[in-house]
Amino acid sequence: MSDRSNAKDKEGELIGAIKEIQVTGVDAKLSDFKVISNVPEAASMSYKFYSVHLHADSSLDLEYRVRISISPSLSGAETTRTTGKMRHGTTTSIGFYAKPPDLGLTSDRTHTITAVYLDAKDPRTGAWVNLRSYSRSDTFKVEKKVTCWEKTPHYANGCELLKHYADDQCMVSSAGAWIDKAAGRITISELDFVEKADGKDANTICANCCTPAPKGRICEEHDIPSSAKAGTSINIGVCVENTGKIKANYWVDVKISGPDYSTTLTSAKKSIDVGKKDKIYVRWDLPLNLKSGTYTIDAVLYA
Question: What are the sequence ranges of the domains in the chain?
Fold first, then answer.
């Protein structure tokens, strides 16, 4: 350091020896500014829309704060994130999330991140001190919300979107929608609409949207004689239960097989209410030359 001894004030009085000192500034910084995704209007959850990488100071352990400015301002969007104390020389990713409310949009709306600020907390006073400011022009969109009966970016309407991710009983799963969003096959607004219906009947979101397929099972309370005589006729009643969500028509194929004999009998259709059991009958005319023995009866149910 240089020696500047014998310095004098403006009256010429000696004020003592003064030496220069080198000060090293806090070298924390931000990098990798990135728009992650658009966000949906009337969102069902928070979505990450922006991220930066924060590189901590090389020698001080400090707590940092990252702030962003969004134009126009966006309700439901995070604009400040803090890190807690970071060890010097480390790096972390800072993400910003948004859950916009219903904004009444008639089309997608563009927002711009105009500035990003890096602050650090002074460990002596607890006050936040701005270290760096970055001018930006990073844009993202708030996508207009999807509704049941209006066209979506990829489907005729929201109902058809839900049916694409619903099973034959109209129950919606969003698992495939997340895969399709990652692959670019649907938008974030379409994904969010499916997410709202996840685990629900599509009709609870869009009334009269989806018709479930008939569903049933062969139950155990059959009406089948334990014995029969060749050359006579018997009625075979197969128990059927409607386990679906709609009243439906059912019928059965009854296969009878035994010693040197096999035949299949098809019943008439019968309507069964939801949650109800009923018997569907076929008539078996036993041939006169049928051999004595045990005959097996199997049934296949159709709806």
Answer: 29-143, 158-205, 216-302
pLDDT for 1: 42
pLDDT band of residue 203 (cuts 50, 70, 90) is very high
pLDDT in tens, 38-63: 999 999 999 999 999 999 999 999 99
- Under CATH, what is the fold of the domain 29-143? Immunoglobulin-like (2.60.40)
Taking residues 75-80, what's their average pLDDT? 98
- Asked if 161 and 193 count as a contact pair (C-beta separation under 8 A), the reply is yes
Domains 29-143 and 216-302 share a fold: yes
* % of the chain residues with pLDDT over 90: 89
First CA to last CA across the chain, in angstroms? 95
Strands 109-121 and 248-258: unpaired
- Tell me the CATH number for domain 216-302: 2.60.40.10
HEC readout, the chain: CCEEEEEECCCCCEEEEEECCCCCCCCCEEEEEEECCCEECCCCCCEEEEEEEEECCCCCCEEEEEEEEEECCCCCECCEEEEEEECCCCEEEEEEEECCCCCCCCCCEEEEEEEEEEEEECCCCCCEEEEEEEEEEEEEEEECCCCCCCCCCCCCCHHHHHHHCECCCCEECCHHHHHHHHCCCCCHHHHHHHHHHCCCEHHHHCCCCCCCCCCEEECCCCECCCCCCCCCEEEEEEEEEECCCCCEEEEEEEEEEECCEEEEEECCCEEECCCCEEEEEEEEECCCCCCCCCCEEEEEEEC
Sheet architecture: strand order including 216-218: 216-218, 233-242, 277-285
Residue 59 makes CB contacts below 8 A (sequence gap 6+) with: 24, 88, 89
**CA 60, CA 82: separation in Å to the nearest integer?**
17
